[in-house]
């Protein structure tokens, strides 16, 4: 809530091994793939289980909509993460991501990537 805990974003793409990642040793994001680049239940479960282990003794709450990719909390046996679901048919009104967070995140992420590319090009031209 305070913004002090920042999780590395999870990006879902189509390719298992995208050509653009060739030779890249470290990505600034977590990457998963599905045939249509959508979040799946399995990808989300793996992401949550990994995050739950990373948290150790910290406790967090995650607000979710009723997407089919979001599993019931009982399926996961999470120790440090509590899942809370928003009421049906209200996500476009009250869901934080629909209030501009996704747009803002994408803008800042793309800006950072472009700045890094320009910096890399300039350092090779010097």
TrEMBL record:
Top-rank taxon, per record: Eukaryota
Q: What is one term from the GO cellular component aspect held by the record?
A: nucleus
InterPro entries registered for this protein in UniProt: CenT-Element_Derived, DDE_SF_endonuclease_dom, RNaseH_sf
Q: Which residues form a coiled coil?
A: none
The DDE-1 domain is annotated at: 2-123
Q: Name one GO molecular function term.
A: DNA binding
Q: Which PANTHER family does this entry report, sorted A to Z?
A: PROTEIN PDC2, TRANSPOSON
Q: What is this protein called?
A: Tigger transposable element-derived protein 4
